[in-house]
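ingest -> validate -> predict -> emit
validate: passed (alphabet ok, no gaps, 247 aa)
predict: started
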Amino acid sequence: MSWKRYNTMRSETVWHQKPALLQETIKKFCLVVVFGVALGYFEAAVVVYLRAIFYPGGFTFPLSNFGQTDLWNQLLLTEVGREAASIVLIFTAARLFGQTTRQHFAFFMVIFAVWDIFYYIWLRVLISWPESIMDWDILFLIPTVWASPVLAPVIVSVILLLFAAIILYRDVRDNVPRVLFFDWLGFVIAGLIVVLSFCLAGRGITESNFKSHFSWLVFTLGVILASAVFFKCLLKSPNPKLKTGAD
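emit:
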């Protein structure tokens, strides 16, 4: 058998395997989404308890007594540990569902995004909050307080979900985005800009002018930079080739 004939037969065989690969990816994607939805409920349930303890009269900004009670100081380390444990859970699940580094990364983004979005959906179901997508929330406590309108983290999560879906689909086609050193650097800078916008807002949550501490301009700059780098990577991706079980 000639080498050309062998390659043709091999390509035809793999082409018929592609629907199975796509179905398997979709199945994993759906399971990951279910995991994220469940994790979002756990997160929301904890917050319901915390707000009942610390804000029985309602969770409204500015948070004049945030971090100023003895009980808060006692529970702060516990809450920080719980947040860190949540990230470990997401990382572990992504490792279990994915088979390659890019799949691990994509599934991490899926779980994180679904977790964050459904955290707010479950809060709405459980305690009718947020009343508006522009209501403010405490987002994270590591390494300092993050805060912003609910809309901002939801935007980030939707973008992460879109990026992850594209990566997983392109992975099936063996045409994943090529990410070089300066691309990674761009992603890191973009992420730090977004985090900076949250951390700066977190510094003003006890003040009457708390809204002025969140810069939509800085946040949008980070989002646009991340999106630009991602689509730049998509445009310079190599031509798709057929994927084999040995690849």
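The helical segments are 3-54, 70-97, 101-127, 151-172, 181-202, 216-235.
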